Structure formats: structure tokens, C-alpha cells
Amino acid sequence: MYIAVKGGEQAIAESLRSLDRQRRGDPAVDELVPAQIREQLRLQVDRVMAESSLYDPDLAALAIKQAGGDTIEAVFLLRAYRTTLPRWGYCEPVDTSRMRVRRRVSAIFKDIPGGQLLGPSFDYSQRLLDFDLLARAGEAESQTSPDAVDVATDDRLPSPIDTLAAQGLIEPCVPADGDPEPPDITRDPPAHPLRRSARLQMLARADEGWVLGMGYSTQRGFSYTHPFAGEIRFGAVPVELVPEELGFAIEIGEIDLTDCQMVNQFAGSAARPPQFTRGQGLVFGHGERKAMAMSLVDRVMRGDEFDEPVESPAQDSEFVLSHGDNVEASGFVQHLKLPHYVTFESELLLIRALREERGA
Asked: Alpha-carbon distance 4 to 51, whole Å?
């Protein structure tokens, strides 16, 4: 903090008041409340929850409001709050095959069991500004007709990748024998090299832009895979808990998840036949772009499993995972704004001394 200046505490207090005024904006405009953010800026709410490792739309909306729309600051706020919460139980692994699907598409088969469900997506919209949204601003919203409500299907939809698995054309997706309990990266500092379960945790809460860039790099020749979107699904998944006094699982609620499985070519090795392989992406809420990028990076990080050369940046798990945490990255970069008077003075003296030596 800038406390070396006389009156520094008063200056800081005024800075915080100025921040409040900036957050509020023009008092003549109705104030945005967290409920509006939760319902109308849901994609930003979902991203904040994903990168905070905390599923709570109300708190995520509050963090976005408090941060003035700064996503990384909102993630920081929500993560800080998360550290104050006690852990009183562990849920069972979620099963995305039980998802009440609102959107489900596959790029590898035209006709899939249950059909392609387009659901809510920008994929089919024109990227043109809709000025009708300005005209409707401030008007009372009309009652949504029953036909316009986005309803999730209760039918369990099999994955189109199951067809490949039944024919032995894709690697199986089952836990390995003796598969250990996954670590908790929020409680135990990650130590490289990491198991896949830890890598997936870190990718799930890494900055979306960073993961997107790493995934994009794998498509521009910095890797050895050609991906296909096997299935992308979004919907509500039941969460189950096994209370000690009962000894069996009970459903305690639902959470929205986006699940992506990428299908990748593999020519085979001495230990594996030619087959397709998988990349996995799973995030809170509706986050297709993040889940897709995550699945791309997950697959290339498994290069050692398939005896593939590890030469590309996205394959270096320590590089990717250590620099993908936006809260840590933001703190390390922004700490440069804090006073460095003494350090800079020492380097200034050194530069002057070197210049004098060179002049002599």
C-alpha cells in the first residue's frame, strides 16, 4: 500500500469511495442488482463459478457486481470467500450420462440417438448488433409463452461415442485398476508431474482465454492430433452424497455442467492398436468454448501415454498449468503497481556506476 506518503490512509479511503462511485455509474440509471446479473448475464456467472471452483450463481452474481464486471476480480472475490467455507462432505462422482440435456451436438455423426439438440447457442446467430435490444430497454418484459421456454429433456441420451466404443474403435473410458483417489488441488499444492485427474482440475478452473489459446495452438500445427467434436452436451446433472448414517447415496440437488469429448486420431504403438483417443473437458455452467479448449489440451498432455513426441508448448503441462491460474497471474503482474522505491533506487545506482565505468 502507498502508506509512505503523508495522509496515505485518507487517500486510500478516498480511492475506495471513488471505486464505489465508478461501480454505481450515473445515478439517473437504474442500479443493476445481483438477481439481474444472475438471470441475464448467466454466461459470465458460469465462467466466474468455473474459475472459482465454487458453484453458487447468487454469490457469483454478487462478485461480478462488486467487481464492476471485472471477471478476474470477481473470480478472486469468490475464491477468497471459498477459502472460508468448511468442507463437511464429499459427493459421489457426477455421471454426465444422466444429464437432463438442454443442448447436445455431435460433429462426427449426422444422425445420433436422441437427435441433435441445438438448444441455446450463439452458433446459429448472425454476428450483427441487435438494436432492438436498445429499443426494448426499460420496457416491461412480456410474459414468456410456454412454447418459448427452454425445457431440458428427462430422457437419458446415449453418447454417439458409445457406438465407436462398442466396436473397439476408441479407447475405453473407464477407471484404471487401482486408480487412486484424485488429489484436491485447492488444498494440496500441486507438484509436477501431475496425474491426469489433477491436470483436469487445474484446467477446469484455469483462465478461459489462456486455455483457449493453448487449445488453439494445437490446431495450428503445434501438436500431433486432428480433433473431432465427438459430443458436446449441456444440462443439469444430479449431485449425490452418501451420509454416514445411511450408507447409500441420496440426491441433494442438481448443477449445470458442460461436457465435451474430443475424438482424436491415433496410428497405434507397440502397446496399443490403431484407434481413436479421447480428450475430456468438463466445466460448471454453460461453457462450451472452455470445455472444448480444455479437451484439446487434455489430449495433447497425454502424449507420453501414446509414445508421442512431447515438443509443443501445450504439451508442457508444467508450463500450461502453472501459468493458467488467472488469480495468481493477475496478482503477480499487478504487484508491480506497488512501491518498489528501494529496489529501483539500487538498480538506478548500478546503471549510473556502469555508465561511469564505460565512460572511463
From this structure: 35
**Chain centroid, CA 187 distance in Å:** 19
CA 326 remoteness from chain centre = 11
* Measured distance CA(357)–CA(359) in Å, rounded: 5
For 179, the grid coordinates are 486408480
pTM of the model: 0.89
HSE-up (13 A, CA, CB side) for residue 53: 20
Q: Are 251 and 245 in contact (CB under 8 A)?
A: no
Instruction: List, in sequence order, every residue forming a beta bridge with 259; answer none if it has no partner.
Output: 233, 282
Q: What contacts 315, CB < 8 A, 6 or more positions away? A: 223, 300, 301, 303
Q: Is 81 exposed, middle or buried (0-12, 13-18, 19+ CB in 10 A)?
A: middle
In whole angstroms, what is the distance from residue 56 CA to residue 202 CA?
19
Q: Cα separation of 43 and 133, whole Å? A: 18
193 upstream amide cis, omega within 30 of 0: yes
Amino acid at 128: L
Cell 470467500 belongs to: 81
List the one residue out of 45, 319, 307 whose CA is nearest residue 202.
Answer: 319
Q: Render each residue's pLDDT in the chain as its tens digit; 360 residues.
A: 444 555 578 888 999 999 999 999 999 999 999 999 999 999 999 999 999 999 999 999 999 999 999 999 999 999 999 999 998 889 999 999 999 999 999 999 999 988 999 999 999 999 999 999 888 765 655 555 444 456 667 668 889 999 999 999 999 887 777 778 888 998 888 889 999 999 999 999 999 999 999 999 999 988 877 799 999 999 999 999 999 899 999 999 999 999 999 999 887 777 778 899 999 999 999 999 999 999 999 999 998 888 888 899 999 999 999 999 999 999 999 999 998 999 999 999 999 999 999 888
